[in-house]
Amino acid sequence: MASFKPSIMLNPIDGSHCASGEVHVIIGPMFAGKTTALLRRIRSEGNNGRSVAMIKSSKDTRYAIDSVETHDGIKFPCWALPDLTSFRSKLGDDAYEKLDVIGIDEAQFFEDLYDFCCKAADHDGKTVIVAGLDGDYLRRSFGSVLDVIPLAETVTKLSARCELCGKRAFFTLRKTGEKQTELIGGADVYMPVCRQHYVNVNVNGQVVIEAARSVLESHKIQRTNPSLRQIQLFNGCI
Ligand SMILES: [Zn+2]
């Protein structure tokens, strides 16, 4: 992957780095393909001869600790860190200087996201590609992801497919009763939903329970017989 080819331009006047970095942000609900889009972009940059590195939060241990992995099993080596500030010291100054592109997955878990992106893009000339949830399960701003939008050249909001009707889904619904903002989980805890189903299941607790139960049932059946998944999902429609 990383070729570590030096490509940092130096300012001819004072020898400092030229501010030639960029910030790109990929947002959306869970299961929208954010990590897949990030990996595709990082791989493409690597194939173009740029030196790349990927960072994810060490809070998310659902998959391998030393790789970013999509829900459908595609992997890429990464640094799993508690914060972004420690990245440079972990990597080493020389290796950091030679980096061209930094991918950040699950960016909502990094409190120092804004400062890191600012420094990396404005002062160190890095291209930073940030992927994360824009909203939590209550559709409130999650972590610092929205804070970096003013720093970004591009923002891409991806959609998933509503688990209850199949329409485009922009929101993440929590199936369980836990109330904390950060509750790490996959399809057992969360599902992507359209606006109609987000609103319906949140105004009527009974519907939430029924919807969650039917989707949970469909997932159980899916594990034993994937061909039944679609039928079960539509049976679970509300
Ligand atoms: Zn729906």
Automatic annotation (TrEMBL):
UniProt keyword terms in alphabetical order: ATP-binding, DNA synthesis, Kinase, Metal-binding, Nucleotide-binding, Transferase, Zinc
Protein's pathway: Pyrimidine metabolism; Purine metabolism
Top-level taxon of the source organism: Eukaryota
SUPFAM superfamilies referenced in this protein's UniProt entry, alphabetically: Glucocorticoid receptor-like (DNA-binding domain), P-loop containing nucleoside triphosphate hydrolases
PANTHER family reported in the protein's UniProt record: THYMIDINE KINASE, THYMIDINE KINASE A
Entry similarity comment: Belongs to the thymidine kinase family.
Name of the featured protein: Thymidine kinase
Lineage: Eukaryota, Viridiplantae, Streptophyta, Embryophyta, Tracheophyta
